[in-house]
Structures are given as C-alpha cells and as structure tokens.
UniProtKB/TrEMBL annotation:
Keywords: Neuropeptide, Signal. The lineage of its organism: Eukaryota, Metazoa, Ecdysozoa, Arthropoda, Hexapoda. The keyword Signal applies. Residues 1-18 form the signal peptide. One of its GO terms (biological process) is neuropeptide signaling pathway. It comes from Nezara viridula (Southern green stink bug). Gene3D superfamilies: 4.10.40.20. InterPro entries: Neuroparsin. This is Neuropeptide.
Length: 63
C-alpha cells in the first residue's frame, strides 16, 4: 500500500510540473497569423500556435 501512495504522489508532481514544459507562450494577436514564406513542404502551427515551415523527408522536426 505504501509504494502505491508514493507512486501516486510522484505521478501527481510530474503532472503538475509538466504544464511548464513548453519554453514559449502561446501566440497573441497579430503574431498568430504571420505565415513564413518560401516553405517547400508547406506550413503548420507549432505547439505555441505560431506558423512554421514543415520539415521534409530527411529533415529534423521541431528544430
């Protein structure tokens, strides 16, 4: 029973701290609509809500 309590407490702590994982704030206002130009593979929104060029075959995502 005791290990279950510890595991539950650690899981809750990890969940609370995971909210601060993203190093950016969501976009606000006009910056949400600015789209990059010249993207060979199209555009997509990142985790922060900003538009970015999509990666193509053999390219690293999220970098």
């Amino acid at each position: 029973m005791y290990p279950l309590v510890i595991l539950s407490a650690l899981s809750l702590a990890a969940l609370v701290h995971s909210h601060d994982y993203y190093p950016c704030e969501p976009c606000k206002g006009e910056e949400c609509y600015v789209q990059p130009e010249g993207c060979k593979y199209g555009i997509a929104k990142d985790a922060c809500g900003r538009w970015q060029c999509m990666a193509g075959p053999g390219q690293r995502c999220g970098g």
